[in-house]
Amino acid sequence: MRSLLSTPVQGEPTPAGPAGPAGLLQRVLAPDGYPGMRATTAHTCALGLFDSTSPLLTRGVPIGDVLSGGGLFVYDPFELYAQQDLTGVSDPNMTVLGLLGKRKSTLIKCYVNRQLGLGRSVCVVDVKPLRGEHPPGGEYSRLARQVGGSVIRLAPGSGVRLNPLVDPEDRHRLLRAVARAVLPRPLSEREPGLLGVALDYVARDGQEPTIPQVVGALFSPSEEMADAVVTTPEAFAAEARDVAMALRQLCEGDLAGMFDGPTSPGIDFDAQLVVLDLSATYHSESVGILMSCGTALMQAARARRLRAAEQAGDPPPKTILVLDEAWRVFSVPGIGEWLTSQYKISRAEGQQNIMVMHRFSDLSAAGDDGSRVEKLAKGLVQDCQTFVIFRLDGDELEEAARILSLSDTERDRIGHLQAGQALWKVGAHRQIVQTAVSSIEMPLVNTDAAMAVRR
Fold it and tell me: Where are the beta strands (DSSP E) in 219-336?
């Protein structure tokens, strides 16, 4: 292959123009039919011909083209952590934000698809419906079916049910997590103990306990239950009334039939890609509760895989958890604390948590300004070392610039990004990247069917 600055081969016409090296450089930079410019090497630095940035990683999944300097941008949180002495990145978590329609979900779906090729396990809480999808489903259902993953679609009347209490090793923790999701306040000091006593009582015969059985035991405790916490049945019922009423929400109304019985046959939480499809409840006020309960169940499945790997002497499996529309989870009391703990132990458990939202002000949905819940939500975001910022405008851009300490140049670039372009802030590394989508991936990431025009 000839260099761009090599001489023409025999038989090729010699382009017209000045002779000598200056003329050759002019013809390379300005092919026939395009205006050119003659300059010395002292001036060509202004063209940025040799402007380039060193790659953040050489191992990982390809994301797209670096727009500031060229080259391929490669990203992997686990490789970054393994090379933290060089990268300075010791936290695997990621926050993705940007205006509606700027292809945040395109990036995440491509990223998930490519990470599956590296053997990672991925769990997605998917709440956005995909119009025109058959059978009906969320944005990630098509990808899951294409790669042989598991789609768990929870919807009123769907007949799909998940029992948080099925696993003896996790049922106490999951019961507390579910109760914390439906109770409009944190659990009291005694309520976790009361829940544990009720759960042990209904599971005493070795049968699989269910939420309705626990609710019944809390409303009508036995003498045995009362003796376990040195009180009377009447006092036990009075103390447990609030949490019993909260758990009862999972057994009636628009949440009935989802968590109030044994798990439906065929549910697979151990597939490489698991999508919890909540798109049918997208406009429901209970979607935050469903997200919280479903996430707890997926985390329990991950904990089982982690224990199995430890017992077999294998390295911990690498897992990625995607929370789309993450701000909805923060509106559920108690979940901010739980997510904070998950983020802090992500390194120890080999998990990357990805939150996807439109803007930082989405976190205000977590509570009134200055409230403890909002502070938890913003602190959770600031625990991340990887931020992917698609286009933002106005006050949202100013807020992002303040929280992320962006330079004036970066702030200006973000305000003019095109669809599919984002600023990747990975530790101290910052690059503008155009997400690359292959022809194979395009049918899996396209969400514009409702806007398509038939030719």
Answer: 273-277, 319-324
Residue 66 to residue 189: CA distance in whole angstroms = 52
Q: Which is nearest to 353 in space by CA: 363, 343, 361, 367?
A: 343
pLDDT digits (tens, 9 = 90+) for 26-43: 433 344 444 555 666 666
Q: What is the pLDDT of residue 55?
A: 60
Q: Which pLDDT band, with edges at 50, 70 and 90, does 192 fall under?
A: very high
Residue type at position 198:
A
Q: Please compute the mean of the pLDDT values over residues 266-285 and round it to a whole number.
A: 86
Contact call for residues 94 and 388 (beta carbons, < 8 A): yes
User: Is residue 277 located within the same domain as residue 148?
Assistant: yes
202 domain-assigned: yes
The answer to whether residue 151 sits within a structural domain is yes
First to last CA, the chain: 42
Closest CA to 101 of 408, 399, 402, 391: 391
Spatial CA neighbour of 426 closest among 77, 68, 169, 125: 77
For the chain, the domain total comes to 3
- Let me know: does 167 contact 314? Beta carbons within 8 Å: no
Round to whole Å and give the CA distance between 443 and 109: 11
Answer yes or no: is 393 within a domain: no
How would you label 38-72 residue by residue, b for 16+ Cβ within 10 Å and e otherwise?
eeeeeeeeeeeeeeeeeebbeebbebbebbeeeee
Report residue 284 as tokens.
């429901």
pLDDT tens digits for 84-138? 888 888 889 999 999 888 999 999 999 999 999 998 999 998 888 887 677 778 8
At which residue do the structure tokens 């992002």 appear? 400
Question: Does 82 fall in a domain?
Answer: yes
* Amino acid at position 220, single letter: S
Task: Report whether 89 contacts 385 (CB < 8 A).
Answer: yes
The domain in which residue 74 lies consists of 55-88
Taking the C-alpha atoms of residue 205 and residue 202, their distance in angstroms, rounded to an integer, is 7
One domain, residues 231 and 326: no
